[in-house]
Design brief:
The protein contains 11 helices and 4 strands, in the order αααβαβββααααααα. The chain has 304 residues and is mainly alpha-helical. The chain has a 4-stranded mixed sheet, sandwiched between helices. About 2% of the residues have low confidence.
Length: 304
């Protein structure tokens, strides 16, 4: 009972933090857009009036097309009920969604020999669970249930909204920053720098350049921090759903031992997977890791 209450408290805190994380990412996106406008000669008020609606529109578009974008990046397809393994997958997803108390997600499959899975979607009512063909072939039923329950936890805890939107925002910030810095290097920012101005304009100029350099770094670190923190919670929640932490622990052990030679999909969505298909056997956590170390996740599950 005590563990259940602690888990519920973590989930509530997770959901409350979602708003502030999204707001922070919006501020970063607005800041980099403002830096572009200011360095290209727009007065601060005009830059704000133009950039803020564009940022809000971009967030809305990213939100609206996030699921399609992730599935396209992963090269995923709908599960085939005429295939024996994929039919069993559909049944398992239905069972785990009932156990988790959420609507059944759509079921997709990624053609890959890697043992992996991810969830995406804007909300539980239109979420997606995707599992690799490697997972279907190499995991037993308890292990597969553990993996699916882990992804169900991401859906139930509202992790998928934050994770999916931040993928698009981080990419946009990095792209805008690169364009901005290249334009400065080649002299496109002379419209602002050639104008006369007092010390306050010089300070704004320095701040804008610094933000153009640091915003992508902060955005990426925030995205990775979100991913690492919520993986631990999804492991615990998934084990609680199945009442069998050993199933997920065993699946993670197989994942640890099966680093793919030729990972499928795109690195832009690597943080959504249960384990990073492009950087697998990391012994120690770092600021640049998309996931906590598998050894530590397995240890925590085995100790439950």
């Amino acid at each position: 009972m005590a563990k259940s209450m602690m888990l519920e408290d973590q989930i509530r805190h997770n959901k409350a933090a979602t708003f502030w994380i999204c707001l922070f990412m919006l501020v970063l996106l607005f800041g980099i857009g403002f830096a572009v406008g200011y360095l290209w000669g727009a007065p601060p008020l005009y830059a704000t009036a133009i950039v803020l609606p564009i940022c809000l529109l971009y967030i809305l578009i990213t939100y609206s097309f996030s699921v399609q974008s992730v599935l396209a990046a992963a090269k995923a397809r709908p599960a085939n009920p005429n295939n024996r393994l994929e039919k069993l997958l559909i049944y398992r997803v239905e069972e785990m969604s009932i156990a988790a108390g959420i609507p059944m997600p759509k079921v997709y499959v990624q053609e890959s020999s890697d043992i992996n899975a991810f969830a995406t979607g804007k909300k539980p009512e239109n979420s997606v669970v995707c599992v690799t063909t490697g997972a279907l072939e190499k995991l037993n039923q308890e292990e597969l249930e553990g993996v699916i329950a882990h992804e169900m936890s991401h859906i139930k805890n509202r992790d998928i909204l934050v994770a999916t939107v931040t993928v698009g925002v981080v990419g946009a910030i990095a792209l805008i920053a690169e364009i901005l810095l290249r334009s400065l290097f080649f002299g496109a920012g002379r419209g602002r720098s050639s104008r006369k101005g007092g010390p306050e304009q010089l300070i704004l100029l320095v701040v804008a350049i610094a933000f153009a350099i640091l915003a992508p770094l902060f955005a990426k670190m925030t995205q990775l921090w979100i991913s690492r923190k919520r993986e631990y919670l999804a492991d615990s929640s998934g084990a609680y759903i199945t009442r069998n932490p050993d199933g997920l622990a065993s699946a993670l052990e197989k994942i640890r031992a099966s680093a793919p030679d030729n990972p499928k999909g795109s690195k832009t969505v690597a943080s959504l997977y249960i384990a990073n298909p492009f950087r697998r056997n990391v012994e120690k956590s770092s600021l640049w890791a998309t996931h906590p170390p598998l050894n530590e996740r397995i240890r925590r599950l085995r100790s439950m």
